[in-house]
Amino acid sequence: MSSFSDYLVSHVIEQEVALFAASERLRARSDSEALHDLRIAVRRLRSLLHPAQGMPGIDEIEAALGELGRLSGPLRDLEVLLPVLEAEGLEKAAALRRPALTSGYVALLASPQWDRLMRLLDGWPMLWRTAERHGVLEGLHAQVRKRLAKQWHKLRIALKDPAHDRHRLRLLIKRMRYSLEAYPKDSPLPQKLLVPLKEAQSTLGTWHDYEQWLIRSERELDLMPLQPHWNALHDLAERDADESLERLLKALG
To answer: Domains in the chain, start-ordered, CATH in brackets?
Structure first.
């Protein structure tokens, strides 16, 4: 097995272990960060596999990871919202929503999306090694480097666009950040850019939270009293996000 292929397999297995460990913590309700860590493992797996699209088993696993990400996203949004409601003195509103979160954990781990992903990940290393023995993985390393460079180019263009879409930028930055962590020796970006990438991801994440909560407050009447406060915080978060994007663009050069 080539050193690069070996690197990819070992890191996929590492994240599969992290994913399974987070799922067991979630199943046991052992701590409040289990779902968050599960979603981080999903994101890291996607960042590892995305540049290798088209290679054996990759597209199927990436699609399954995307499905699980979409399924778990609303749960994570609710998980983040509940302590905010409690801090605002809306304990009743939080209590009314907590059963949906608890049942959502159970449904996520019992879902066909979860089962399919686990089956695909378990069978992938053998499929990958068989493909390598037959010479199917030729050009893998060059492909990964090329696609990482393409990701960087896409992000740079988006950052320079005066009419940039913050939602799209948040996803591009998240992908670039985790790709840089996944492939530190192959990414066109130096490691020092992790700091502004993480900062931009964090500020855009805060802005995104307020965006989602304001949308939710339009259809959930017990949240409407929070709209003025959330609108003010949303505007501050938007300003902070734009400033962090400017710093990131400057750091990219």
So the answer is: 1-138 (1.20.120), 139-253 (1.20.1440)
Q: What is the pLDDT along the chain (253 residues), one digit of tens a residue?
A: 479 999 999 999 999 999 999 999 999 999 999 999 999 999 999 999 999 999 999 999 999 999 999 999 999 999 999 999 999 999 999 999 999 999 999 999 999 999 999 999 999 999 999 999 999 999 999 999 999 999 999 999 999 998 889 999 999 999 999 999 999 999 998 999 999 999 999 999 999 999 999 999 999 999 999 999 999 999 999 999 999 999 999 998 7
Which of 68, 165, 168, 167 minimizes the C-alpha distance to 113? 68
Determine the Cα–Cα distance for residues 211 and 135; give it in Å rounded to an integer: 48
Residues 244 and 15: their CA atoms lie apart, in Å, by 29
Instruction: Kindly report the number of other CB atoms within 10 A of residue 34's CB atom.
Output: 20
The pTM score is 0.93
